[in-house]
């Protein structure tokens, strides 16, 4: 197993605490980066798009999180890269707007142009 864990030559396991992509608060977990991070890892990092347990409870129980992402800029696993913009719409609104079923994790990527259009429509309705 020790061959699977690559320690950073200077910083060892090189731990960091991930931040919630929604509220920005630290999640209740620790990530051991080891040699995957060049240099000393900061104490807190935004590592993924997944919300913390509090934000899951607050938002994903009420709707679906749409994550704006660039499908022309893929990561190493061929996933679109998120831009950092997100919004949550109700399950009812999701079913009215989209022809696909609500995703199991209640999160989905959305192309930049479509995300911006939906956001502009929301702004028109709320003004």
Account of the 3D structure:
The protein has two domains: 1-48, no CATH class; 62-126, no CATH class. The termini are far apart. The chain has helices spanning 53-60, 91-97, 112-126; strands at residues 15-18, 31-32, 44-45, 63-74, 80-90, 107-111. Strand 4 and strand 5 form a beta hairpin. With 127 residues, the chain is of the alpha/beta class.
Q: Average pLDDT value?
A: 86
Which value, in Å, is the CA radius of gyration? 18 Å
Tell me what portion of residues adopts beta-strand conformation: 25-35%
Q: How many DSSP E strands?
A: 6
In N-to-C order, the SSE pattern is EEEHEEHEH
Question: Based on helices, strands and strand pairing, what is the structural class?
Answer: alpha/beta
How many domain modules? Answer: 2
Oligomerization category of the chains in this entry: single chain
Defining key terms:
single chain, alpha/beta, 127 residues, three-stranded mixed beta sheet
């Amino acid at each position: 197993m020790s061959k699977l864990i690559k320690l950073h030559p200077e910083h060892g396991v090189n731990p960091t605490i991930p931040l919630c992509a929604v509220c920005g608060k630290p999640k209740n977990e620790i990530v051991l980066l080891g040699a995957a991070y060049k240099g000393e890892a900061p104490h807190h990092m935004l590592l993924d798009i997944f919300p913390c347990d509090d934000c899951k409870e607050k938002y994903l129980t009420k709707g679906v999180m749409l994550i704006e992402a660039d499908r022309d800029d893929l990561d190493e696993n061929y996933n679109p890269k998120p831009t950092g913009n997100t919004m949550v719409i109700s399950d009812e609104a999701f079913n009215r707007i989209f022809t696909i079923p609500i995703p199991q994790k209640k999160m989905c990527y959305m192309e930049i142009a479509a995300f911006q259009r939906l956001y502009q429509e929301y702004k028109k309705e709320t003004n």
